[in-house]
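Record type: monomer structure entry
Structure origin: computed from sequence
Chain ID: A
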Amino acid sequence: MSIAITLHLLAAVIWVGGMFFAYLALRPVAGHLLEPPLRLQLWAKVFDKFFPWVWAAIVLLLTSGFWIIFAVYGGMDMVGLHVHLMLLLGLVMMAIFLHIYFAPYRRLNQAVARQDWTAGGAKLNQIRKLIAVNLVLGLIVIVVGTGGIYL
């Protein structure tokens, strides 16, 4: 069980921590220092590097989470409400990420390749809003997952 919990925590830290850094540190600096063409190219490359880690985090979170639920606790009916809530919010986060990855992120890369900075800016803005939602959900999941058993 310690391996599963460790993998679960590492995956959550990578995903949520990456969003926290990108949204609250990188975004304001990039917006202040870079003109739209460079800013859009920067974000396209940042997402190119970060999103494979999110995919890996999703696989680890699902694998380790279900391993803990079923192999350790014996199923969904044996875990507390906080685990159900953590799973639900995690699945919502994954759905939002899938949308980001297959829709605005793909279109952002296409706009950057065409040097269509207006379209790219619109897609980046859409991604920004969705990542803000996912960041809030991720922080809630962390609170529920770590403190929910005590509520």
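Annotation 1: Residues 2-150 form one domain.
Annotation 2: The first helix runs from residue 2 to 33.
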